[in-house]
Structure formats: structure tokens, C-alpha cells
Amino acid sequence: MAQQISNNAKNDNGQKNKFKGLTKQHRSWIYTGFFIAVIILLFLFNNSDYLFGRAEENGPYPPNYVPAAQKSTALAPDFKLQSTEGKSIKLSDFKGKVVIVDFWATWCPPCRKGIPDLIDLKKKYGSKGFEVIGVSVDSDTKDKVIPFIKENGMNYPVVYSESNVLELYGGIHNIPTSFVIDKKGKIVASYVGLTPKATYEDHIKKLL
User: Can you count the helices (H) and strands (E) in the chain?
Assistant: First the structure.
């Protein structure tokens, strides 16, 4: 009987030792797996915009920047500004249309490069409920705005900016800066820097 107990004890001890060995190995695997998972998650988090196609070109962005891929309920700040034709234009007058508000200047090379795209978009979608409002931030070069409009055949309204409007839109520190606004007057996307025509067109097609 004693011998049997002793053998059983040895077997029990062997099983316990075996169990301890497996547990330690399992712990090692778990710790390693957890460490790798944390590294992967941190990488994905820090690079999600680029990995999943949500990165916006250029920067920095204004404080109220709304990513292009993210729908927003942010209402576009209304403004009333003097146009180059001597009329007062309010953003709210265009409610019911898809609008791109483009902050630009005559002396800005990327702005000048992007204007033909905006002209083409207005030609293509203007009759379907799309509008562009150019907000000129020219100050010392304000007298060049109207000649520039005529020379380039700009077919959308252009207004002169005021400092309070710039602040309403987060403080425009870089141009061009543009905002895509839906029919309800909400900002659905904003961009800093020259933006591809196709990017704007994707928004327009979805919002019209």
C-alpha cells in the first residue's frame, strides 16, 4: 500500500512538473504574442490614414479641419462678403447646392494651378446644383483680382475676404484652403494645398 502511494506520489509529482513546464512555455508564447500585437496595433494606429487611404495631402490643417473620408455635422459658418462685381454674397444663399469654398490669392502658384479645375467643375456640374465661391485673400494685390478673373475666365463668384471670416474657418494659414459643403450647409471635407480635381469630383457626385 505504501509503495503504491509512493508511486502515485511520483506520478503526481511528474504530472505537476510537466504541467508547470507547459504553463511556463505557454506564458512565454502569450507574452511574446501580446508584445507583437501591441507593436502591430501601434503601427496601424499611427499610420491608419496612409494604410486605409484617408490621408489628406499637404498641411498643416485648420483647427476645424474635417477629413475628406469622414462625414461631419459641422455647419459651415455663414458669411456675407463683397464680390468683385460689387454685390453682397452670403454663403447661406447657396443652401440647397453643393458648394466648394476656395480661399486663394492671385500671387499663390498652387492656387493659380488649381483654378482651371474649379472652372471645369463649374462648367460640368453647375447646372446640376453645384457652385464654387472663391474667397480672395489678396490684400496688397487686391487690384489684381479682377484682371486675373477676366484673364483666366473664372466662371464662379469671387468675394474679398475679411479677417473675421478667416477666423470663422479656423484661421486660414495656408492657401489654397478649401471646404466642401453639402446641400444642407454642412462641411463634409476640407483640404489644405492643391487638391486633385478627381477628389473634388468624387465629393460632388456623391453629394448632388
Answer: 5, 7
195-to-1, 60, 70, 162 alpha-carbon distances in Å: 88, 14, 17, 24
Q: What is the pTM of this model?
A: 0.66
Separation of alpha carbons 114 and 110, rounded Å: 6
DSSP 8-state assignment for residue 131: E
Distance of CA 205 to CAs 124, 125, 145, Å? 11, 9, 30
CB burial of 64-92 (b: ≥16 within 10 Å; e: otherwise) equals: bbbbbeeebeeebbebebeebeeeebebe
Read off the pLDDT of residues 31-90 as tens digits, 9 standing for 90 and up: 677 767 767 776 665 555 444 444 443 444 444 444 443 445 589 999 999 999 999 999
